Amino acid sequence: WLVDPAAVVLSLALIGVGLLVLGYSTHVQAGPPTTPSGTENTRLDIEEVSAPRASANLSSSIKLVEPNVVPPGEAVTYTVVLDNAGLDDAPNVSLTDTLPVSTTYLPNSLTYPPESGVGGYNPATGEITWTGTVSAGLPVTVTFVVTVDVALADGATVINTAVITDGAGMG
């Protein structure tokens, strides 16, 4: 059984998070003569605009799997590192990771820094969830373990997806 590292997907729903945009604003203004000789000219005023800096930026978050090849019945550890590369804290961040088919959550294996937020496993939906604050420059690591079902065919690939929303209500 193979856990394809390329198939471990981390979906980021970051719509609404401020992104750093660098640029200039150009204002074109046709005006009265602007040269001492009085000849008609077009004046081009270029003003540098300060771009707003990202208040929070979770786009550098990653997901890891260990080991990536296991026999049926063995354990796999998933680790999601929520990384805020922005300048401000990211409050109300939400992580949802629906367990792959053919895996079983290992009870009490979910770990995360308790001061960062709250998390849990819902057996009815098969989802790992975490909600909390990701402080600027201080990653939050969420880890959990699943076992691979014995009935899984040799050579099968399991895909696992984690979804992170930014807390701005836009993800």
Distance between the termini: 33 Å
The pLDDT mean sits at 74
- Main β-sheet, spatial strand arrangement: 1-11-6-9-8
What would you report as the Rg, rounded to the nearest angstrom?
A: 24 Å
Sheet of most strands:
5 strands, mixed
Q: Could you explain how this protein is built, in words?
A:
The chain is mainly beta and 171 residues long. It is 0% helix and 43% strand. It contains no helices and eleven strands. The strands form three sheets. Strands 1-11-6-9-8 form a five-stranded mixed β-sheet, with no helix packed on it. It is elongated, with a radius of gyration of 24 Å. Mean pLDDT is 74; it is low at 1-52.
What is the element layout, followed by pairings?
Blueprint (H helix, E strand, L loop, with lengths): L7 E6 L10 E7 L11 E7 L13 E5 L8 E8 L7 E9 L4 E3 L11 E6 L4 E8 L5 E9 L11 E6 L6
